[in-house]
Amino acid sequence: MSVFNFTLILSxxxxxxxxxxxxxxxxxxxxxxxxxxxxYYIASIKVLQPLPPITEGDIGSRLTLQCNISxxxxxxxxxxxxxxxxxxxxxxxxxxHGGSLYSSGLHRGDEGSYxxxxxxxxxxxxxxxxxxxxxxxxxxxxxxxxxSSVVATVRWYVGDDGGYPISHFTLVYFPLFHEANDTKHxxxxxxxxxxxxxxxxxxxxxxxxxxxxxWASNKLGQGKPTTxxxxxxxxxxxxxxxxxxxxxxxxxxxxxxxxxxxMVAATVLFVSCLSCILIYxxxxxxxxxxxxxxxxxxxPNRGFDINLExxxxxxxxxxxxxxxFSY
Length: 327
Fold this sequence. Notes:
Blueprint: E1 2-12, E2 15-18, E3 24-28, E4 31-41, E5 44-49, E6 54-58, E7 63-66, E8 68-72, E9 76-81, E10 84-85, E11 93-95, E12 100-103, E13 112-119, E14 124-134, E15 141-147, E16 152-157, E17 168-175, H1 183-186, E18 190-192, E19 198-201, E20 209-218, E21 221-222, E22 226-231, H2 238-247, H3 254-294, H4 308-326
Parallel strand pairs: 6-14
Antiparallel strand pairs: 1-4, 2-3, 5-8, 7-12, 9-10, 9-13, 11-12, 13-14, 15-16, 16-19, 17-18, 17-20, 20-21, 20-22
């Protein structure tokens, strides 16, 4: 609410006051009339609906930012992006006497913090929101291909998912120099799970240049592909192995070979002794078990009792009888 004070001065040559019936109530000749007047004027401004802290929109989609502020007298609206006035390169344009921003197709460059200021010369209010534009996934980063003669390992990382979860990865590979009829076999896209960050490619040709191309996709589409060119290694045959052995012979001295041979012989001897000990212990254990099992099987014959004294006397009598008969 605002208070205004001012002085009213009237200059006249003749002034009369007449009622509704035409009778003159008062007449004044030329003179001045001065009066001090004061009145109250109510000025206000208020926010009808605040902007959300974060506003999201897909790239290429339509978007409206509404500055829902009202006041008396009606305010003027001013828009700012990241603390600066709006530029012409933005897709968002001022509409409805400045009360809203409208875009018929969002750009990636439209991202930022937008502030609406409403001012009616007595009071002001402002609203702020952060605009996030969602896009397709960005280009994969740190893409590496490690080849061997017939196998290649592909690794990658996700730097920008575009604001939506990755739905899958796509990998394509083909020889750099190939015949037209071979292209169909290699250009079949390989769809990879979104949780995977490493993939193996088999059945490659040795000593061949290859092109590997990989990209990510989300609900808005596929991202920009990353291309890597590598060459598979040559297979090592027996002559090449011998050449490598001769080329690096300086690194393998005779002393080193003797130490290695001694270690191998000592290992073999230790294993042999340990095996003999284990075999001996197992054999002794089996013999003891057989002996223990045989003892309980010796059951005496209860019907056969031997009198040792009687047997001795019978043997002596028999010997004496033989001696008498001989004379």
